[in-house]
Protein 1
Amino acid sequence: EWSPTLESHQQIYTRDQGYLAHQQYKMPWPMAPRDVLLSCERKANAREGVLLSECHSVEHEAAPIKDGVVRLILSSTRWRIEALPDERTRLSLDLEMPASMTVGVPKYVVKYCQRSSLRDSVTQLIAAAKRLRLPPHESYLKWRRTRQQVASATRRSPPTGVGASASRLLL
């Protein structure tokens, strides 16, 4: 919904590595589609108001590389989402990949990824959440909010059940 290049996202359960995230991305011509297989761990600290999501690429027979698709290797990704006072959020992303992943990728695509893709993704995520009228996720509703702000956020939300499953996907 919020990522125009994301073609598919699938959770795959494996006995040896637990849940893995498999994503496929469409790319501008003449680039081949990309996919990525990630093992991720989330850590939430309600006292600090911080959510961390750390991922790295893995290989697994449950998601083999397909013909015509380039497997993207991410050495490390680290999203840090921090609740701030006054309904604000601090968001940061650290991403490491081998230099070999950029071979053959047009320079304008590399520059876009380095300079603008995070801002554009967050803008698109916020727009989708507003358009779909997604409620605040109950796990994070009270983070860095006063009782009055929690009550206000709850009143602004759609009725229970509307968009609830989608909001879990976004966070």
Protein 2
Amino acid sequence: MPGLFERDEFDAFTAVDVETPNRYSRSICSIGIVRVDGEGEPVRLHYLVNPCDDFDAANIAIQGIRPEDVEGEPGLNALWPAIEPYFTDCLLIAHNALFDLPVIRKALLREDLYAENWRYICTLEQSRKHIPKSAFGSHRLNDLCAGLDIPL
């Protein structure tokens, strides 16, 4: 995306995706993180998170995570100190950032944790802007990756 950010403004970026246990968008039950910088291989992390919240059948049907799957997992308050560095001093990237990032922020606020103002790019928004829906059938991440021959 030439011109959106200065070339050397960010030395790293973090791609992030969350899953929610219910329709309230205030808690997470899973978080995936991929950190890319100029040094070495990308860091890939995935955590199941105990949301300390109810699960809806509709959300379980979408992402397959059930209450018993997260029963012994840490809550976001315990996990955040380990993952917060992946959210600072970098550009965040998410497919549907207008969902993922507010969910993370609300989940942090529920735990009385601070979240800085993040700089981000939404790949869903950018794909809608630059790729006709007819090119790959939809702007879902799996369809875009398949159409662009990018391993998901």
